[in-house]
Design goal:
With 327 residues, this protein is α+β, with helices and mostly antiparallel strands. The protein is 26% helix and 32% strand. Strands 3-4-5-7-6 form a five-stranded mixed beta barrel. The chain has a five-stranded mixed β-barrel with strand order 10-11-12-14-13.
Length: 327
Amino acid sequence: MVKTTLVAYPVRFLITPVRSMRSLRILTILTAALTLPLLCNAQDKKPTKLDAKVYDHFGAGITNGEKPLSLAEAIKSPAKFAGKKIRLEAPITGVCQTKGCWMNLGKPDAKGNPPVFVKFKDYGFFMPKDSSGRTAIVEGTMSFKQETVAETKHYLEDAGKHDEAKKVTEGRKILRFMASGVAIKKALNLTNYEQFGGGVKSGTEPLSLAAVMANPQQFVGKPVLLTAPITGVCQSKGCWMNLGKPLANGNPPVFVKFKDYGFFVPKNASGRQAVVVGELSFKQETLAETKHYLEDAGKHDEAKKITEGRKILRFMASGVAIEKAKK
């Protein structure tokens, strides 16, 4: 009995480590088998480009991820961005009319120079010549550039500014952006829209309601192209409409009238998207006007409670395009 016990202990002691090592090997193999495909997938997964339904891509295009700088941020202290890879978002205000081999971003300064002049890396891609008015996101490097007289004249001629080119006596000093990739918001497509009044032309990108409401004063008295959902229409004739979700006081963000009472919109247009062109103004309505518009909307009980006229943003539209009703 004693001998059997003494022999048994060493045998058990030797077997246990062997089993543990075998289990550890199996666990290591299983872990590797599960982990390697994940690592391979992570390496193979490439960054996706911005939504192709919203943007047209050129060159390397623009991928999701890094938020672009605004034009204001870039030109406030351009020296700190010079030579660094950055992204920039701004409206296109000019494009080469010969090949589309350069474009201007931002409103020209007092001298007529663009805030940022964009060229395309290795002359490898071009922009549509009708891109002005659309918003671009560019990725690349920015630098200060002193042009020669010949260069400045050349670019002005490319833009169709031949008379201006003849008057140039010195090269312009500008911020030049060398873009490796560009994404441009798709042009406004109104094939699925009904037109009213002077209508709205396809192409130029309209402002969003949020962009206008952020600082409406800067748009007052200027031609504006605006897009927003219709949230109310005159139920008597269709002679006005509301754009956007009502504010806390019940007023619409934008109240649209139609120039010279010259056209009306369908009374069942609420819920559809509209694009309007015209001018924006602040309007203090009389008590009678506010009551009248509420009654036109079928809000008779609300109209009876009114004690003062509302102050609103009024849009006088010369043309309207409304998304066709879904069948």
